[in-house]
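Supplementary Data S3. Sequence and C-alpha cells for construct A.
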Amino acid sequence: MAKPERTPASFRVEIDGQLIKRRAVFSKAVRDLGPWHAVSEDAAASLSARHRRKVVDDSLRLIDDLTNRPLDPLFSDARLTQQKQRSKFSTWFTRIIVFIICIAVGFVGIVFVRQLNTDPRRQVRASLISELQAQNASLKKTTTEVTDLHTKVSRLSDSMPNAGPDSTLTQDEMTNGALAVKGSGIVVTLADPVASGTANGNGPRENNANHIRVVTDSDLQNIVNLLWKAGAEAISVNGYRLGVSTSVRTAGQTILIGVNQVASPYKIEAIGNQKNLSQAMDSDSQPGLYRTLNAAGINPQVSRSYSLRLPAAQATGVTHAKRSK
C-alpha cells in the first residue's frame, strides 16, 4: 500500500529574510498570506542545518530583493482590487472644470503679460503731444485773430472822413510785414536728402542719430540774408511771412519761423526784382553755398514766379522800445 505524500514542512522566516514591504491592508488575501516558505522534508532538514548568510550591505540586500522578490507586493495587491467604473457625468464634469480652470489661468496670464509690456512713458508722451498740439492750435488761432483785427483797424482808419490814405504809412507797413502783399519774384525750394550722408556741421540737427546732413536753420538764414541783400521786399518761408520781429531758429529737432513749426521741403518765396534775385541765388554767384549743400545731397531749386501772394506777418506788441527824439 503506497504511503500518502506528506505535506512539505514549513518553517517561520527569520527576521533577515522577511519582506521589506508588507501587504497592503486592502488586499483580500492579507490574512491568508504571510512570510512563509514551503519546502520538502529533506530540504527542510538540510536548510535547518545550513547557516543563512545575513545581508547587511544595502547593495547585497538590493540584489537579494531583485533575485528572490522581483514582483513588488503592492503591485500584486493592486491587481487583486477591481477598478470602479466612473459615471459619464463625473467624467464630463471633471473635464469641464479643468477646461474652465485652464481658460481662467490663460486669461490671467495674458493680462499679466500685457501689464508687463505696457510702457507708462508712452501714455505720458501721448498726453504731452496732444497737449502741445492743442496749445499750438490755440496759439495759431489767436495769432490769426490778432492779425485780422489789425487789418480791420487799418481798414477802418483809412475809411475815416478827412483822412486820406497815407502812402508813407502804407509803405512802412508793407516793408515791416504788417500788410499782406503780392507781386512777382522767385521761389527757392530746399529739401532734406533722401540718401544718408556724413554730417559735418555743428548744429543740433546736423548730428542726429542717423548721421544725415539735413537742412538747418543756418541754411535758411543764409538764403534769407542773401535775398534781403539782393533787394527782396517781402519774404516768407512755408507760408509764414518774415517781419521785423520774426526769427528763424531751431528748437530741438524742429525749425521755427517765429513760433510756427516748419518741415521739409522748405519753400522760400521772395517778392522783388526777378533778375537781381535770380542772379543772387545763382550757383555762379554762390559757389561755396552750392558746394556745401550739394555735398550733403541738398539741391536748391530756384524758379521765377509772376504772381506771389504773401500774408501779413504775425503782429507783436512793443513794450520795451520807446521813440527816440
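Construct B, processed identically:
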Amino acid sequence: MDSLTLTDGRREPVRRRSAEPAGRPVLRDRPRAVQAVALTVSPGPPPPGLSAAKVVAYLHGPEPYLLIPDPAPGMHRTLVRWLQGRSAVVGPVVARADAGASLRWARTLLALTPQRPGSTGEILFVEDHLAKVVLLQDPLLAGHLSAKWLARLQDMTPTQQTRMEQTLLAWLEGGGATGAALLLRIHPQTVRYRLRKLERLFGSSLRTSQARFEILLALKIHGMAAECARLRHRAEELPSRQASGPRQDIRPIGP
C-alpha cells in the first residue's frame, strides 16, 4: 500500500505496512489530535489549505482515506471545497491513539449511505449522525436486538406492522396515548385500541423501563435500516452503464 503526504504531492512507501490492516493508521508526525476522512475515490490535487496542514492520504487501496493531524477550525470548509462532487465521510476529531476509531466510524457511516453511480456526491460528518453510527456499527447485533422485540409483529400484514410500529414509537416518544395521538395526528381512542393489541403481544414488558428502552432502540434500528435499504435499492436501480467506467473529472494524485 502507498501513502501520500500532501505537503509535496509525492508518493512514499509506508514503513509499517502492518499498521493499516490492523486498524492503526500510520502517522509520521506525532500530532495531539487526528481527524479521519473516509473516501470513495481518490480526489484530485489538494488545495493549499490541505498541503499546509500536512495531511497524510492513503489513496491506492480499496478504501482510500485521509488523516488530518491537529485539524484547524477552517479545515471543514477546505475539505468541502476539495471534495465537492465526491462522496466522503469526515470522522470526529480524536486523540492520536484513537485515529483508527475515527476512521472506523467514518467508514461505517459511508457504508450506510450508498451513493447512486454518476450522481453528485455528498460530504457527511459523523458528528451529525452519531446515533446512526452507534446503533448500526455492529449490524448483526443491531439486527438481533430489533428482531428480539419486533418479531412479535411478524404475523401481521405489512400495513398493520407499519401502523403498530408507528404507534409504539409515538407512544414511547410522546409519553402516553394522548401524546402519541398528537404525534400521529389521529384520535386518542385509536391509539388506545392499538395499544391494547400491543399489550397482548408484548405483555408486561411495556411496563418496565429497561424493556421500553430496548424496544425504542429496536424501532430506531428498524427505521434506520429500512432507510439504508431504500437508499441502496435506489442506487442499484440505475442502469449498469452509468456505474461502469471511471469518472472523467476524477484524477488520481501522484505520478
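Residues 209-237 form the longest helix (29 residues). The radius of gyration is 23 Å.
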